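Entry: Small-conductance mechanosensitive channel
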Amino acid sequence: MTVNFETLKASLVLYGLNAIYAILLLAIGWYLSGAMQRFVTRMLSVTHRVDPLVTLFVGSLVRYGVLAIVGIAVLQLFGIQTASLVAVLGATSLAIGLALQGTLSNLAAGVMLLLFRPFHIGDDVEVAGKAGKVRSLSLFMTELVAADNTQILLPNGQVWGAAIVNHSAYPGTGEVKVAFPVPANAANTLADRILEELRKDARLDHQAQPAVSVTKVLDVANPAAPILELTVSAKAKPSEAGAVKQCVLDHASALLAAA
């Protein structure tokens, strides 16, 4: 069998040039997809009428759309007809759907989250066992920022399929109520000190003044030093009520230890 080296050389040159063109096209397409995402995000942000969550989602959608077009162009560069490609994809759609069912469910969940918008950028939420502030929503992932500034990435399928607790949905205040035992002779002093600290806390709703009261007597076995239950009541944002409660407990423990 003879080999036509001229034909082989011409084929190698042709496919080599096509490979170089494909690499250049992929590089340009990658840059263009990022540029289009930034452009669309910036244009939608300028209007101030589009929710930031929608802006980020549409920008992500544009990026993947440009990458899909570039991928088809690269296939055509090597002589692969898109009509044949569609036919092959149609014949293997079941296998592809089964293999990518997790990814496709995340994509579908992302669309549902975009349509119904159970939360917005900056909302404090609890979902799928995680709590944090919503930072972004992409085609496949929801990004939260935890209280310790840790990034949390959740697949959209888990977010859509779980109960969503949104602490920012309804503006208002939450009640902080803490009760702990104290000696009767130190109750007044402790109450004054706790009120003094609470009035300095910027997280509290200062239109509703915090209060400290004795709710019941716990132990009178020793008449000289009975034990009372001191209850602290205050108003704070729902997302910060837990932190305020812990702060009150820590401060009360320190005061009791000093007393």
